[in-house]
Amino acid sequence: MDTTSTIWTDLVAAPPDPVFGLIHNFIADTNPKKVLLGVGIYKGEDGKPYVLNTVKKAERIMMEKYNDKEYAFPDGIPSFRQHAIELSWGKEHQAIKDQRVASM
Q1: What is the C-alpha separation between 85 and 54, in angstroms, rounded?
Q2: Which residue from 76, 79, 73 is spatially nearest to 104, judged by alpha carbons?
Q3: How many other C-beta atoms lie within 10 A of the C-beta of residue 24?
Q4: Which residue ranges make up each domain of the chain?
Q5: Has residue 50 got a pLDDT over 70?
Q6: Which terminal residue of the chain has fewer beta carbons within 10 Å of its beta carbon, N or C?
Q7: What's the per-residue H, E or C state across the chain?
Q8: Cα(75)–Cα(104) distance, rounded to whole angstroms?
Q9: How far is CA 11 from CA 1, 4, 8, 15, 83, in A?
Q10: Of 17, 15, 11, 14, the residue nearest 88 (C-alpha)
Q11: What is the tens place of the pLDDT at every residue in 4-42?
């Protein structure tokens, strides 16, 4: 059994996210004029998503800088996944050396 300490060793569960509670309250509310502002999207009076001007500006900047809109692999960007594994377990962890850790 590997006893190497990792960042998960002393992990304590976080309290429930209050935003998800808002979503459940929203779903239960029968008021036809209700507006959900808790999940990062806004909708206009027509019920369609409304994209904030700041988001449109950020998208323009990203397209000017990175004009290819290339997709990541279905399981994520390999270099990012590898760095996440190393951060989580420690670069020298035996499970990583044995290639027993996977990520998506």
Answers
A1: 33
A2: 76
A3: 9
A4: 15-70, 71-104
A5: yes
A6: N
A7: CCCCCCCCCCCCCCCCCHHHHHHHHHHHCCCCCCCCCCCCCEECCCCCEECCHHHHHHHHHHHHHCCCCCCCCCCCCHHHHHHHHHHHHCCCCHHHHCCCCCCC
A8: 5
A9: 19, 15, 5, 13, 19
A10: 11
A11: 677 778 888 888 888 778 888 888 999 988 877 766 677
- Residues 62-83 have pLDDT tens digits of 888 887 767 788 888 899 999 9
In the numeric block, the tokens 């999207």 are attached to: 41
43 DSSP β-pair partners = 49
Exposed e or buried b for every residue in 51-84, given b needs 16+ CB within 10 A? eeeeeeeeeeeeeeeeeeeeeeeeeeeeeebeee
Give the tokens for residue 94. Answer: 């035996």
